[in-house]
Amino acid sequence: MTRNIRFVLGAAAIIAGAWLLLSNIQPFFTATKSNHAKEEVVQAKDSIQKTKTEENVLYPHRPKLGEKIGELYIPKISSTLPIIHGTNEEELEKGVGHFAGSVLPGEDDNSVLSGHRDTVFRKLGKVGIGDLLIVTTSAGEFTYKVRKVRIVDADDKTVIVPKPRATLTVTTCYPFHFIGDAPERYVLVADLVKK
């Protein structure tokens, strides 16, 4: 009798073990498949994000100081001006200077251009709200529309602050006919309206 009990208990243990094994093996394979699927989704998202980031890079190479990066066309005054990277005196002698601490034209944020009022921006005072500023660079043509005209103190740093969208800020000394170092700046703030 003891033998029969041992046999029954042994068979019950084998059946219970088989049942436990079979009931736990299916979730194991499901979890493994689920993890592989999650990994594939993450890899796909990373690939798409990388592609989007690469597509959004307008300028794969940043310019050097003194390098011509494009042209600024101001239809209101029929003026086409070279844009030079940097705003030191030697860059400003060649054309409109691009403030190196700002983004390049066409990029999101604030791209700042400056020029002398007695050379490149002699007629800038005729440009106002609603007028267009068209910048052409290696990344394409970018059309901005003047949203605001400001006159600020010469040491006002608000012209170079970051902006939440693609903005072009153009500055020159003011008043235009002032003799000597002008105490103020004439500032045009324009929003990107066409790439």
UniProtKB/TrEMBL annotation:
Keyword match Hydrolase: yes
Lineage: superkingdom: Bacteria
Stored Pfam families: Sortase
S-adenosyl-L-methionine keyword on record: no
Keywords of this entry: Hydrolase
Gene3D superfamilies (UniProt xref): Sortase (2.40.260.10)
Source species: Bacillus methanolicus (strain MGA3 / ATCC 53907)
Protein name: Sortase family protein
